[in-house]
Amino acid sequence: MAVGAAPGDRVFSEVKRLCYAGLDEATLLREVVDRLRRAVPFEGYCAHAVDPLSGLVANAVSEAMGGEKEARLFFEHLYFADDVNKYNSMAKSRCPVALLSEATDGRLERSLRYRELMEPLGYGHELRSVFTAGKELWGAIDVRRERGCPDFELREVRLFRRVAPHFGAGLKAAVLRSQAPPEKGGDGIPGVLVLDKRGRVSHYTATAERWLEELEDPDSDSRWHEGRGPSAWREGKGLPAAVWTVVSTLRRALKPETERDKASIPRVCVRARSGRWLTLQASLSEPHTNGSSETVIIIEPPGPKEMIRLNTASYGLTARERAVVELVMRGFTTQQISATLYISKYTVQEHLCSAFDKVGVRDRQALVKRLFFDNIYPKLLEEFE
Fold first, then answer.
1. In order of start, what are the domains of the chain with their CATH numbers?
2. Could you tell me the pLDDT band of residue 19, with boundaries at 50, 70 and 90?
3. How far is Cα 238 from Cα 341, in angstroms, rounded to an integer?
4. Which of 94, 143, 136 is nearest to 118 (CA)?
5. Positive or negative, the Cα torsion across 35, 40, 41, 47?
6. Per-residue pLDDT tens over the stretch 73-100
7. Which class for 366: exposed (0-12), middle (13-18), buried (19 or more C-beta within 10 A)?
8. Run of H or E residues at 254
9. Fewer Cβ neighbours under 10 Å: the N or C end of the chain?
C-alpha cells in the first residue's frame, strides 16, 4: 500500500509531464488521477477544477463516490458547511495535503462529511489535496479508502505534496489557453433552466439544453441524453456539478450564516468541453400561490468585462494589480489611476510593472492587446459579421 521511492518518482515525473502537456481541465484531472492511483491506491475519488473568480467548484470528475443523491447532498448541504480541511482554508494556509484522521485527531465522527457521506459509503480514510498557483486555488481532490484498509502513509502524502503545485499550474494553463472560437448563429443567446423546490427540472430552453450538453461529463453514467431521455434530467439526474454549485450558493446567499455568505454572488464561471467559458447565475422566481418558488438558472457566455477578469485572474494578478489593469483598459492615465485608487503614481507603476511581468509584455499597449484584443475583441467582431 505504501509508495516505494522508485514508483513514486516515476509517477511524479509522469504527472509533471501531463501538467504541462496542454490538456483541457477534464482530461488533465482524469489522467493525473489515473497516474496517482498507480502509486497511491484508493477506492473512490472526486477531483474538480475551480472557477478562479468565485472560488467555487466548476468541473468535477469522480468515481465510486455515490450517485446523484450523494452529489446533491455534498453541493447543497456539505460544501459550505463548517467542516475540517476546507478547500479555501487549506489554500490560504498553504497546506496542500491533509488527512481527515489527523484533522479530527482520529475521531472521524467529528467530521460532518464523514458522518453524512463517507461512513454510509463504507469509507474510513480520506486524503484531501488542493492545487494552487501563486495564492489562488485552481482545483482539489479527495481520495478515499474503505474501512479496514490502512490509512494513507507519510510517503503517500509526500507524493501528493510534490504533485500539488504542478497540478495547480496545469489547471491554470488550461484557463490561459485561448478559448475555442464561438460558433455563429445564436451562440450568445442565454439559456434558461428552471428547477422546482425538489431540484427537478420543470422548464428549460433549447439553448440551455445545448449549453448543458457542453458542461456534461462525457464519461458519466448519468448522461440524460443517451438512452435515458430528458425525463431523467427532469428528475434532477445527470445535471453538471456547476448547476448544484450555483444552486447551493444561492441558498447560502439568501440565508447567510457568515459575512462571506452575505457578500456571495450566486454565479459561477465554468469551462465547457469545447474550451469556451460559460457563466451560470441563479435566482428565485416569484412565489406561487402555495408559497413555493422555483430556482431560475441563466446560462450564457461571459461578457467582455468578465472575460477580462478571468484573464487577469488566470495570469495570477493580485486584487490591486487587477484594479490598476482594469483602469488601464479604460484608458486611464497614471495620474488618473492614482487619484481613483488613492495610491501614489509610484505605486501605480509598481503594480503595472508586476502585471507586465506576469502577463509577459513590456508596455500598456501590449497588455491591452494580450488581455482584450487577442481573446475578446475578435469574438465581439464576429457577432456583427
1. 5-176 (3.30.450.40), 191-302 (3.30.450), 305-382 (1.10.10.10)
2. confident
3. 46
4. 143
5. negative
6. 887 777 777 678 888 889 888 899 999 9
7. middle
8. helix 241-254
9. C
- Look up the pTM and report it: 0.63
Are the C-beta atoms of residues 145 and 109 closer than 8 Å to each other? no
C-alpha–C-alpha distance, residues 18 and 31, integer Å = 8
Lookup result for grid cell 469522480: 62
Query: To which residue does cell 451562440 refer?
Result: 187
Yes or no: say if 253 and 244 are a contact pair by the CB < 8 Å rule: no
SS3 at position 230: helix
Residue 280 and residue 51 in contact, taking contact as beta carbons nearer than 8 Å: no
* Distance from C-alpha of 335 to C-alpha of 297, rounded to nearest angstrom: 42
Give dist(CA 299, CA 135) in Å, integer.
29
Mean pLDDT of 373-379: 47
The single-letter code of the amino acid at 4 is: G
**Angle, CA 276 vertex, CA 272 and CA 280 arms, to 5°:** 60
Instruction: Output the nine-digit C-alpha cell for 8.
Output: 513514486
